[in-house]
Amino acid sequence: MAPDEKKSPLEIQPTEIKGSWDKGYVLDRHTISSTMIGYNEFGHPEFDTQRSPLGESVYRLKYKGDRNAIPSIVEAVVLFLQGRAIHADVIVPMPPSKLQRPYQPVIEIASELSKALRIALDTTSLEKTKTTPQMKDIGDYSERVAALDIAFNVGKDLEGKRIL
Question: What pTM did the predictor assign?
Answer without folding.
Answer: 0.82
